[in-house]
Amino acid sequence: MNICVALGGNPNAGKTTLFNALTGSRQHVGNYPGVTVDRKEGRYVQNGHDMHIVDLPGTYSLTAYSVEEVVARDFLVNECPQVTINIVDASNLERNLYLTIQFLELGIPTCVALNMIDVARSRGIEVDHQKLTRLLGVPVIPIVARSGLGKQALMDAVARVAEAPRPQPLRVSYGRDLETAIQEMEPLISENAFLTALYPTRWIALKYLENDAQILEKGRSTDKAVSDQLEAVTRKVSAHIEETLETYPEAMIADHRYGFISSLLKQGILKECHDRNRLF
Ligand code: GDP
Ligand code: K
Ligand code: MG
Fold it and tell me: What pTM was computed for the model?
């Protein structure tokens, strides 16, 4: 099977290490057009798999606040890799899952590589990857990128994700004020065929609420009238939230994402590891 696979994750999650373990010397470095961000690509050929792998810039989020975030997101949306491997640092799970849920909200086929399980274990932490697989609805495969452990299982899971139907975008609940605004925005967004061809409707509403410069610009240039209405909804809910809660939508969205993650973790994802030297 010849498929395109993106590799995304937080800085220092082990992306480059995994990329090298998968592609060896079959790699080259290019450029993303117009920006000074390297584009590393390589080929993974093993056990009947033939995959083209692109190492995305490391990011903490997928909102257009930095060049890296825009590059990563544009790649995912414009070049439609069949699967995205989201590499996650198991010893820093809570923070890393913040990006994971954004991949899932974008509705792209994802496979989680749970990396650094050796580091987690040396700190006495064991991640229940099977439970996390069930809760997230995507495969979570434990690996040690530095030694190559779990690499084959990961790529088998990637091949299965490539063949599965495209997933429904994850729905995180953002509380009454923002949910009311999203409900008001969704029918308006549906009128913009350009945006809805690229992104899930609910995701676009969230980007308006997060004041995402790139989505605002695309909205304005493709349907100014609709974009004006969406921006008016955003202003109205922002003013209300500021007055009643002394916060703003971006902060509320982040809080609810972290709330979603802590509700996952409360379901017993992190366990004590009794054998700190055990590998698999
Ligand atoms: P990137 O920023 O995501 O590309 O991360 P790197 O691949 O550069 O890895 C960051 C650091 O973590 C490097 O020092 C790696 O050698 C180390 N590293 C990566 N994967 C593992 C792993 O599974 N176990 C351990 N112990 N270290 C790892
Ligand atoms: K690094
Ligand atoms: Mg790197």
Answer: 0.94
Number of the ligand 1 atom closest to the C-alpha atom of 87: 3
ipTM over 0.90: yes
Give the torsion through C-alpha atoms of 44, 47, 49, 52, to 10 deg.
0
Selected residue with higher pLDDT from 272 and 108: 108
Ligand 1 contact via 146 beta carbon (within 6 Å): yes
Give the pLDDT confidence score for residue 240 in this predicted structure: 97
Let me know: does 237 contact 210? Beta carbons within 8 Å: no
Q: Give the residue from 7, 9, 15 showing the smallest Cα distance to 97.
A: 9
Known binder of ligand: residue 56?
yes
How many beta carbons lie within 10 A of that of residue 168, not counting itself? 10
Going from the Cα of 14 to the center of ligand 1, the distance in angstroms, rounded, reads 4
Listed in sequence order, the DSSP H helices in 87-145 are: 93-105, 117-122, 129-136
Cβ of 20 less than 6 Å from ligand 1: no
**Integer Cα distance of 154 and 151 in angstroms:** 5
